[in-house]
Specification:
Length: 595
């Protein structure tokens, strides 16, 4: 079915030829949705035509509107508000639209792999601690953006870089050697990532004690931080690891393996996955090679101490170190190596990095360095920056053990969903196994939706209780509406493709829902362009609000006596449930059939 705007553009061009004997370009015609406080469906901005019409904005609108109403079947009425012509679209258009999409389960989706291949990097954890609340926002954003881009026609490669080397890893290793008593996940019953994370916290505790003791003995704070025996031990362990000392490498492999098992369990609960994993312990070496290979390139230089730098002052940035004087790499070195490896493997149009906004500068520098190395594809690097997540209790700190653990929070969400559901008595009569599964769907749906409905660039406050409210802009509210629609369809014995409503009249409530459904492809496209699940999340909420108004203000569908009207409204229900389900799936949220 032809797009509404395309039909209107053609009709408006015909109007100007007939009335003003002027041929318009498509670019001269500005159409937008009619504001809710005015009657109409589509609004034409009249101001650009005043030189042609030689009339006031109001008079121009009247002339154009009258011609369209009398000569174009698509337009049945109009009104003019200053320089804006609000057009009322023939209800038959909305009826035809519903019929044309009624049997398509991929409504709004582009042809698979019809657009460029892109890569999305997200999660990218350190192997010295478990995943936390910040990782949840990262994973939910990365996973949802990947799904939205895929629905928009892109082939999407989902990857993560695991930060499995560096001083932070050695801190956990030192603490385990000194205080671990050979503990393992098996002997303690702890998930491996949590066990290793506990030793990271223990290191910080011991480090602070040593700093305090040194300061009491007369050292300055800076001196104490550098001379504390435990930090010197960690630094020496890092040097030994980079030198390949067998027992250090073996301990590193063992403790990392514990963490990976823990991560896999957490990702399974989150409902996220990856197509490929990269490890910093591999890519930093390639980064070093690439930096050394470009040492004679313009802007690259070596200092007297042997360290290698790049001069970015001409780009209004500063000088950036790429290799230390002892030959060890810095963080950006491995990112250079990783980026080059990925391009050699996949040749993507874009490389999207889902990383917190504190790394904005880092990714500007990364893209710039790669371009200066001669890699034109680096122009496709884009940092999908997002704000931090705060809790009512304040900011989190990993090394102090005040981080909100991802596993704990997801379990808390499930338990909160259970508590509220039982208070409301919504799940009576369900088997216990079904209820437990549903509590997880509601709890995780609440968590994901609450995080994703916020513009990614904004810092946000996460309130677990508020997110599980069954009213308002929440996941459970949307899930409950979907379950209600499915109940209506079951009670009505609805079968897809079997409904005839060709002569059914549409009232304002019917049209309001159909118009909202009509917007889904546009919203999905814009969500992909902006890489913003928030646009899609809030669209779904608006659709649910409009549907609930329709449901409350029309004759109960199962009791409707006019068969064609009943069929029309069953189709509206079915299509709304489908769009809710597909839209929420793109957010990574499951919607139950029953609640």
């Amino acid at each position: 079915m032809e797009n509404l705007n395309n039909q209107l553009v053609r009709a408006i061009k015909e109007t100007f030829v007939a009335v003003f004997e002027i041929a318009l370009d498509d670019s001269q015609i500005q159409l937008q949705k009619t504001r809710k406080e005015f009657d109409g469906d589509i609004t034409l901005v009249v101001f650009p035509f005043l030189r042609i019409t030689k009339k006031s904005p109001e008079q121009s609108g009247e002339v154009i509107g009258e011609y369209l109403k009398n000569n174009v079947d698509l337009v049945v009425d109009y009104n003019v508000v200053k320089g804006f012509l609000n057009l009322v679209i023939n209800p038959s258009y909305w009826s035809d639209f519903l019929k044309s999409t009624g049997t398509s389960s991929t409504f709004g989706y582009a042809e698979p792999n019809s657009k460029e291949i892109v890569m999305v990097e997200y999660s990218s954890p350190n192997t010295n601690k478990p995943l936390h609340l910040g990782h949840l926002r990262n994973n939910f954003l990365g996973n949802s953006v990947s799904r939205i881009l895929k629905a928009n026609g892109h082939e999407v490669i989902k990857v993560q870089i695991i930060n499995d080397r560096g001083i932070h890893i050695c801190k956990s290793m030192v603490a385990w050697k000194k205080f671990g008593n050979a503990e393992t996940p098996a002997t303690t019953g702890l998930k491996g990532d949590k066990l290793v994370g506990n030793f990271y916290v223990r290191f910080d505790q011991e480090y602070k004690k040593e700093i305090a003791a040194l300061m009491a003995a007369g050292k300055t704070e800076d001196e104490a931080k550098k001379e504390a025996p435990i930090i010197i031990e960690a630094q020496e362990m890092l040097r030994q690891w980079e030198a390949g000392k067998p027992e250090i490498v073996e301990l590193w492999k063992t403790m990392n393996s514990w963490v990976y098992e823990g991560f896999e369990s957490t990702y399974a609960t989150m409902g996220v996955d990856f197509d490929k994993l990269y490890y910093e312990s591999d890519t930093y070496l390639i980064g070093k090679e690439k930096v050394l290979a470009h040492i004679d390139t313009e802007s690259f230089y070596k200092k007297d101490d042997g360290s290698i730098w790049i001069n970015l002052e001409g780009d209004k940035l500063d000088n950036k170190i790429l290799l230390r004087s002892d030959g060890t790499s810095v963080y950006i070195t491995q990112d250079i190596g990783t980026a080059i490896i990925r391009e050699e493997e996949f040749h993507c149009k874009n490389y999207y990095y889902v990383v917190g906004n504190e790394q904005d500068y880092h990714f500007n520098v990364l893209a710039l360095i790669l371009q200066k190395m001669g890699f034109d594809w680096a122009k496709g690097i884009e940092h999908l920056s997002y704000g931090m997540v705060d809790l009512p209790s304040g900011k989190m700190k990993s090394r102090e053990g005040t981080v909100v653990d991802a596993d704990d929070l997801m379990l808390e969400m499930k338990n909160t969903a259970q508590e509220i559901s039982e208070e409301l008595g919504k799940l009576e009569g369900m088997e216990d196994e079904q209820r437990q599964e549903l509590y997880w769907k509601i709890g995780l749906g609440a968590l994901k939706y609450f995080i994703l409905k916020v513009d990614p660039k904004k810092r946000m406050l996460f309130d677990p209780k508020e997110s599980v409210d069954f009213n308002g802009n929440t996941g459970p509210f949307i899930q409950y509406t979907h379950a209600r629609i499915k109940s209506i369809l079951r009670k009505s014995n609805y079968t897809e493709g079997s409904l005839d409503f060709k002569n059914a009249p549409l009232d304002a409530e019917d049209i309001s829902v159909i118009k909202q459904l009509y917007d889904f492809p546009e919203i999905l496209d814009e969500s992909a362009v902006q890489k913003s699940p928030a646009l899609l999340a809030n669209y779904i909420y608006e659709l649910v609000k409009v549907f609930n108004h329709f449901y409350q203000n029309t004759t109960p569908i199962v009791k409707e006596e006019n068969e064609e009207i009943k069929n029309l409204r069953l189709m509206i229900c079915a299509k709304t449930a489908e769009v809710i389900s597909n839209g929420m799936d793109l957010l990574g949220v499951q919607v139950p059939e029953k609640m």
